[in-house]
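I have been asked to look over a protein record a colleague put together. Alongside the sequence sits a line of tokens, each denoting a local backbone shape. Please read both lines and tell me whether the tokens look consistent with the sequence. I do not need a full report, just your reasoning and any doubts. I have pasted the whole thing underneath without changing anything.
>
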Amino acid sequence: MKPKIIGIVGGAGPFAGLRLFERLLFLSSRQYGCYKDGDYPQVLLNSFPFSDMLTDKKNPKLLKTELTLSLNQLRAQGAEVLAIACNTLHNFLEEDQEQEDLIHLPNLLGEELRLDEVPLVLCTRTSRENKLHKKFFECRYPELSLQEKVDGIIDRILQGESRSIARDLLWVIERGKAEAVILGCTELSLFSGELASSTKKVIDPLEMLAKKMLERSFKENQKAPA
């Protein structure tokens, strides 16, 4: 049977959605043996122009409306396995949108993390203020001075900067008071491949999300043996 159609809510920021798309294709080849065009799952990327969600000017009601619209647009196009390529957007997810077809990223972390200690989550100030990740698993956030540096790095990534980002992110990771660090903003995932020199265990949720989406797309679409 053909894999289930995958739908990605992107746009927050746009390159994070593209990164998830790329990982889906790469892992489809490596883990599921796809090499012919027809082997791969159909992937729909809705790079939605979301309103501001990182400053005091954010409008939660508007963001909830936009997120609901972006998810339903994918469903209308036939997507059966959905995910939001942004941690922060989960703060604005309406309860009626938490359907079985949606893989909830922070909840996925809570279900699949197997750590011996409490991890440090590097995320946006919005997610920190709402204690987004703490709703799903035990974790800690960086002290405020370090959070300011994380916010600055995220802002630079959104502006398209790449020079010295990995170096500055490594500096933050090494000063975090935890042996395991979660890249709790998908913008940071864009530089996950450049963090191998860290002495900490660095966890990329976007990679976990890609694997879970493919698991649902391929394996859950197979008929059980008679």
